[in-house]
Amino acid sequence: MRGTDTRTGTDTGRDRDRERLRLRRRRARRIAAIAAAGGTVAVCGGLTGVETAAEIAESWPGLRVELLSREAPAAVLGERARGYPGRVLERLGVRVRTGAEVIEVLPDGVALAGGAHVPADAVVWTTGVRVPALAAEAGLTTDGRGRIVTDPTLRSVSHPSVYAVGDAAAVRQAYGVVHGTCQSGIPTAVYAADAVALRLAGREPRPFRFGYVHQPVSLGRRDAVIQFTRGDDTPRRWYLTGRAAVAYKESVSSSPLPAFRMARRYVIPARAMWTRGGSRNRPAASPTAP
Length: 290
What we know:
Blueprint: H1 12-36, E1 40-44, H2 47-59, E2 64-69, H3 83-91, E3 95-98, E4 102-106, E5 109-112, E6 117-119, E7 122-125, H4 134-137, E8 148-149, E9 169-170, E10 172-173, E11 176-177, H5 182-200, E12 214-218, E13 224-229, E14 235-241, H6 242-254, H7 256-265
Parallel strand pairs: 1-2, 1-7, 2-3, 8-9
Antiparallel strand pairs: 4-5, 5-6, 10-11, 12-13, 13-14
């Protein structure tokens, strides 16, 4: 969120953006120097690790890239699509270590459970998402990852005047808790804004329902795999690879703002902007009185 520091008159949002850009450039220069020296970068993580390893290996062909993961690359994809990321990583020269549990990041690499040491000149950590402790410290009810536990309309169960969206919220649906991605983050934000407006007008919003559509995975700039899913995020048989997958992912990545503008222009209800998950996400029927 952007804002102005009233004490200094500076735009704090712009300052943060400049700092992020400076850090990104610094990291890029560091990786370029390692590549020029024929060094190694270790990438630790799951799907984000796959995307990062592919991007780095494609951008710096002279670099040795190792992907360390507990599971095979993109193990969450369907059986038919699952092997594709591994083949692309192999083509890009990425060495994949599965069953690797990192217990410590060291100045010269990473230590694995069992005593193995993986030497590396730099380590990229992409695994795990944990929310800052702010919500818990403020007294809101949170789950094991620090996310605010919400009711069916995305209000905090302990503080109903607080709404939680995106990665900060533990949003439960019939199939389980929604995991944090832009695919769910944008709908929760749009829904919460509309819920606030409805309540201010004296109306009660319908419970939030959300279903997944796909699992897009970038594999560098010229390749990708798109796993289409059921509403509960389990994989369907259909998937895309190669240039078609790249075009699809680029289209999806650029669509949220135009879609939102179109919805506001034509007064499309918020719940019509995303799938609600169908039969796999129907609320349990209320028990009837005996």
